Give the backbone structure.
Amino acid sequence: MMGVMRNKAPHARAAAKEASHDRIVSAAARAIRRSGYDGTGVADIMKEAGLTHGAFYAHFASREAMLAEAADRAGAESLAAVAKAAARVPPEKALAAMLRAYLSREHVENAELGCPVAALGSEMPRQAPEVRRAATLRIKEMNDLVARQSPDWGRPGAHERALATVATMVGALLLARAVDEPALSDDLRQAALKHLRPASD
């Protein structure tokens, strides 16, 4: 009996550490979108995760390592939200559904839970290589997701059109968040939607 308990203890500790690590990354993924990379401090993240500041280095070798994981998590959450919108409708309506979800007023108003590229794009060139790499991989995945939903997927020029679509989506969201006039914010979103709307929609 005692041997069984000893065998379980390391597994329980590992599971607890993994859960703590997940809380830290989740808190950091929200924080970078809310406050930017420079506005995201280790002490605040650890407090939000319900852990002591001193426990940080049991999980990460550096602040940059945490930010890289946070960028990856934020990108994954954004991709999942867009993919979920596409999955709710027939394939021929998927791209339009993704565009509406991404360029929604709700997304504009919830930067903390939204696309990290629109929230952090201008800060990216000044980040550590591992942070930029994590963000770059998620941007490429976003482009691939958009390309696969496009009516011209597999044809020449489809990849380039997907790049232009993603760039327009991100730029419109960034500008819609930047302005202090709600009507202009809505106009920016609607203009991008009209411009990007697939012909079959």
Remarks:
- Residues 53 and 105 are 36 Å apart (CA to CA).
- Residues 61-196 form a domain with the Tetracycline Repressor; domain 2 fold (CATH 1.10.357.10).
